[in-house]
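Supplementary material to the annual report.
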Amino acid sequence: MCVAVPAMMVEREDFMATVDIDGVRRQVSLMLLPEARVGDYVLIHAGFAIQTIDEEEALQTLQLFKELEAYADTEADG
Amino acid sequence: MPTRKLTVDEIRRAAEHLARDIERLVRRPLRLMEVCGTHTVAIFRSGIRELLPPELELVSGPGCPVCVTPAEYIDQAVRYSRQPDVLIASFGDMLRVPGSFSSLLAEKAAGADVRVVYSPLDAVQLAGEYPGKTVIFLAVGFETTAPAAAAAIVTAERAGLPNFLTLSAPKLVPPALKHLLDGSGTQVDGFLLPGHVCAVTGLEPFGFLAVEYGVPAVVAGFEGLDILQAIRALLENLAAGSPEIGNQYGRVVRAAGNPEACHILEEVYEPVDSRWRGIGDIPVSGLKVRESYRRLDAAAVRPLPAIAGTKAAADGCRCGQVLQGLIRPAQCPLFGRQCTPERPVGACMVSGEGTCAAWYKYGAGRWQQ
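Predicted assembly:
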């Protein structure tokens, strides 16, 4: 039940926003995340944006995994 | 995300690397509990169990809201659904959960007005569309979902909708983990914490795990690599011998959580003792609607007369022990025989994120282990 999906906020009107979820547009409420701005990536759950996604953190995680897979290569070679 | 995603091959190699680290770090038999049903499914789907050494057991916890909703709650919802002016609005996975004498799906088939909604706000909208009906929204869920129900209550109150009510029984995760550690008999060496619950609550409510019980915990994301990385972090923490609450899911989970969501929860709900299906009563593990929003609380404004003889669980169903990590699904005598996703006996087999349903769907060949 706690599944949530990332989406990009494309429009905002008061406490409602239009978000883009992999090409599908949906209306979500910003009552729980009033500080969200157009262009932010947000996490959607049960029709509400519940958190912003920190792009820098997301990139760091991605970078870490990339380093791991590169390291796995050297281990395999060695 | 605007960035390139990892290729399948890159993911596979990173997973291999993490799995090698994990194997190095496991020096004795260990049990780690993934609290969240969404994690249970992600672990199966990504094949993580196959990567782990045999001494490391992943056990599912009580983290599926549908599974821990007691039969009495379903019975109440069923009885409301039989009242001719009532429209029940519910998340879809609640419909098949067996109460002690019926389910919402059976009532719907028999003509009751039971609607599936994606968002609590859809239920508010239904109240506007059907002024002749009383819409009762079934507000269940953990800290991830409860703020959405609270926001719907505030929205209906502000709109002055006279015909929107909730049957509210949200539940809180930290008291359930405390209950597990306090003597349910479950041995847990570390927790994978539910990422989206923590997105709302932050880390502080889980601090007691490390401080009071000496059990480390790591908040995990929901990709296979997230989970492997969180397991590695847990093992490193266990090896270091200084239990901490870690956060692998920093891209979504802030230390302070979502203050606005916590604020609206606090405004609408107050903590209350709560009954968990198969587990029993757990102190301050649930939420009830505050006096100031009593007008929207079905239990307060449309109380149902008490009925006797509610049966706690179907004969032989061992959901309660599954939910506490005491047994694996295959150790229940009903699992895969009388109890299947098509004909569930217990709630753990109903929800797609229930432990039994996940083991049934993905665990083929490993049931006997």
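Chain B is about 40% helix and 15% strand.
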